[in-house]
Amino acid sequence: MKRGGWLAAWFCLCWIAALAWPTGAEGEKEKTERFVVVTTDEVNVRQGPGVPYRSVAIVHRGETYASVAEEGGWMKIRWKSGQIGWLAATYAAPVERMEKVTVDKLRLRQQPRFDGRVIGYLWQGDQVAVIQEEGKWKKVVSDDAVGWVAASYLTAVEAAGAAQTGVVTVDSLNVRTAPTLEAERIGRLGQGDGVEIVAAKRGWYQIKTRSGLEGWAVAEYIKTDGKQAPGADNEDAASAMAVEARFASLSKQAPGSYMYSWTRAPIQVLAGKTIVLDAGHGGKDGGAQSADGIMEKALTIKTAERLKQKLEKLGARVVLTRTGDDYVPLSARVAAARLYQADAFISLHYDSAEDPAASGITVYYYDRFADYGLAQSFQGPFSQLAALPFRGVAFGDYYVLRENEQPSVLLELGYLSNRSDAATAATDGYQEAVTTAIAAAVKQYFE
Ligand SMILES: [Zn+2]
C-alpha cells in the first residue's frame, strides 16, 4: 500500500474504532447481533466497510455469520473465532430462522410456485437459512443456490446444541473428514457404538464419540433415538448456528486443512497454506556483519532453509524468495508474496545497532489489520526461547512489509553487532530453536 493510502486507511481505522467501541456500550452491542447468510457463490470479507479495504477472507453461499453492525450498505460480521470483517450487504441476507429439510429431493424453485423453474434439490436433514416467506413458500439459502421451497417440507431446527444421540447399526462404519465418500477416513465405528450427532447433511451425520473421534458417517447406518445426548451443552440456537457456520466455512477449505482442523492431529495443520519465506539480503547485499565476520545474508538463508523444512512438515507450501547467495530486489520479494498468494510472508533478518549491548529478537509488522495478528502470534513462542531475550512486537516501516498486500512480518533474530548474540545466532542449536519457535507461531496463527 502506498503511504497516502495507508494514511487514509489509518484515518478510517480510527473512525471505525470510534464507531465500534462507543464508551461502555460494547456489551449492549453484542446482544443485538443477528445472523446473516451469504447469498452469492463467494464473496470477500474486508477489513472495513468498502471495496478499498483489504480482503481478509472469502465466505461462501449458505454460510451464516453473526452480524454485529450495519453501515452504508456493509455488514460487520464475526467470521471466524471472534474476528471481525465487513461484507457487502447485497451479498447477504438476514436469517429469519434456520430450518431443516424433512424429505429427500425437495425441489428448490426459482419462484414461489409449483410451476416455478427447478434450480436444485435439498435432502432430508439439510439445514437451510430461511430469508423470506410468502404464503406456503419459504425462500431459503442452501450451499448451492437461493430459491423457494414448499414450507410444509421444512421443520424447525431443534433447540440448538440439542445434540441427538444414535447407535451404529452395522459391523463397521467409516468415519470421514467430510460428508462424502471421497473424504479421508479417520476412524471406524462398530455395531452398537454410541455417537452424538452434531449435524446432518445430505444423508450424512456429523458425529462425535466419547473417545473424542469427530467426523462424518453415513446417516443410514446410525439409528437415532431422539434423546438429547448426555452432557450436551444447552447452548442457544444462535451459538448452534455459529457452529454450523464455522463448519460450513471449514468444509470449503482445502481438504487437508479441513481434515486436520477436525482431528486436531499435530501434523499437517498448515495444509493448504502458502508461506513465503524471505531470507534477507543476498548477493552483493551482505546485510549486517558481526565482528567475527558472520554475514547476515549467510545466516538468513540458513534460517530460511531450516524453517522451510519445518513448515513443510506441518503441511504448508513454502516458497523461498531466494535459494542461493543471490541478490533479489525488495520489489521482487514482495512480488513473490503476491504471485503465490501467500497466506503469510515472513522476512528473516539479523539485527545491528550502534550500541554493542543491544540484544535479542524483535518482530516487526506494518499493517495494523493485516499483519498484527501474525506478529502477535510470535509473542508466546519467542518469549519462551531461552537463548536470546525477546524484545517484543513493534511497528516497522520496512519496504517488504509496507508494499506487501499479504499478511507479513519481519523478524530480527538477534544482533550481529552484539558479540554474544552473534555467536549464539550462528549455532545449530539456536537455528533449531528459533525455527521451531517460528513454526510454532505460524501454526498458532492459522489455528
Ligand atoms: Zn537485514
UniProtKB/TrEMBL annotation:
Entry keyword annotation includes DNA-binding: no
Pfam family, one: SH3_4
Keyword Cell wall biogenesis/degradation applies: yes
PROSITE patterns: SH3B
Coiled-coil residue windows: none
Signal peptide segment: 1-20
Domain of life according to the entry: Bacteria
Keyword list, A-Z: Cell wall biogenesis/degradation, Hydrolase, Signal
Name the UniProt record assigns to this protein: SH3b domain-containing protein
Provenance organism: Geobacillus icigianus
